[in-house]
Amino acid sequence: MTGGTGGLVVEFWYWLVLAAALAGLEMVAPGAVLIWLGAAAAVVGTVLWLVPELTWQGQLLLFAGLSIAFVFLGRRVFGRGEGAEPHPTLNRRATQYVGTIHSLATPLVNGRGRVQVGDTQWTAEGVEDLPAGTRVRVVGADGVVLKVERAE
Questions:
Q1: Residue 98 backbone phi and psi in degrees, to 5
Q2: What is the dihedral of CA 115, 119, 120, 125, to 10 degrees?
Q3: How many Cβ atoms from other residues are within 10 Å of residue 63's Cβ?
Q4: Which pLDDT tens digit goes with each residue over 87-128?
Q5: Does the first or last residue of the chain, that is N or C, have fewer Cβ atoms within 10 Å of its Cβ?
Q6: Directed axis angle between helix 34-50 and helix 12-28, to 10°?
Q7: If we measure between CA atoms, which residue out of 83, 62, 75, 65 comes closest to residue 35?
Q8: Residue 46, number of CB atoms within 10 A of its CB
Q9: Burial of 151 (C-beta count, 10 Å sphere; 0-12/13-18/19+)
Q10: Can you give the pLDDT at residue 8?
Q11: What is the C-alpha to C-alpha distance for residues 93 and 70, in angstroms, rounded to an integer?
């Protein structure tokens, strides 16, 4: 790939292949960075197609500058996901049931029993002993144990 002057010759389509590869990698390993590098490579390929005498050093300089600019602008326009905090009960399923009312599947004896939540039974703890079938309100959660009290 050397020209008659001994310099490195880079064809415009090399940049377009690099752009496609970076876009493909973004799909495999999303991080919202490779797509911007791919866009920069596509622009360099287009510029090289329009200005074929651009040296490889100029191409690399253009690619570096565009990459930095595109990543910065992409983060600024589309954000980094900051501020979009996950739901506070995400991955804490028991906490999601706080405030809901369910029936005891087994009696609460010595403060422990089972509560029916949908098609699942959860371990329940309460302060008073209650018979099976009693309607209880979930007032808290400790890991996978639901804290319950009699619902009014």
A1: -60, 130
A2: -10
A3: 19
A4: 766 677 888 899 999 999 999 999 999 999 989 999 999 999
A5: C
A6: 170
A7: 75
A8: 14
A9: middle
A10: 80
A11: 40
As beta bridge partners, residue 124 has 113, 146
* pLDDT band, residue 137 (cuts 50/70/90): very high
Residue with tokens 């876009």: 23
Q: Give the model's confidence band at 59: pLDDT under 50 very low, under 70 low, under 90 confident, else very high.
A: very high
Q: Where are the alpha helices (DSSP H) in 3-152?
A: 12-28, 34-50, 56-78
Residue 2: band (very low, low, confident or very high) from pLDDT cuts 50, 70, 90: very low
Q: Return d(Cα 100, Cα 94) in angstroms, integer.
A: 11
